[in-house]
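Input/output pair, single chain:
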Amino acid sequence: MKEFLPIFLSKNTSKCLFLSAFLSVFLCSFVFLYQNEIYQTNHGKVELFFDIKPQATTAKLKNANSTIHLKDAVKSDSVFFNFFTENLHFDNGLAEIHIKDKYLETNKYPKISFKGKFSTPVDYNNPNPQVIKVKGILQMKKIKKEEEIPVTITIKNNNLKMHTDFVVEASNYGILDQEKRFKDGKDNIKVKLDATYKLAQ
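Output:
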């Protein structure tokens, strides 16, 4: 009996260790699978750069609204971003009047918005910056077009930071350069977005 007891305990200890390891893996998988967190901000920063004649100009605002919904391993994460074009402040007053009236037509189309999903996976447990792509619908004026945008996100301490730089062609969104003010005939608008989100309670 004394000889049998250590063997019995050894086998049971091994089973317990195996069961413990299995449960740990299962629980980690469960947490990953059912990730469901919403991050929000209403202080997103936007910059639009117009390379136009006689002088290039940049428009900025600091009150864009955005929501990022980190879902789970089955359902895709989603991103929503919008801002009121009337809130854009230009570094050139004359350019501001022209762009808001002629290009953006802010009285008729007060918002620019984007709604999409992450097209590359996100590691929720990685606190380092991750470069991913977001695919969705960008709406400027009355035109909606699909865009795939490179985004850098950082998830740390219940905060999420996002940064992106991309270019849109003005003519694709009904912004017609009839006066040929874009330099070199390239009607590109450079867009820069920065936002710090907090985990919704």
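The CA atoms of residues 39 and 199 lie 4 Å apart. Residues 35-199 form a domain with the Lipocalin fold (CATH 2.40.128.110).
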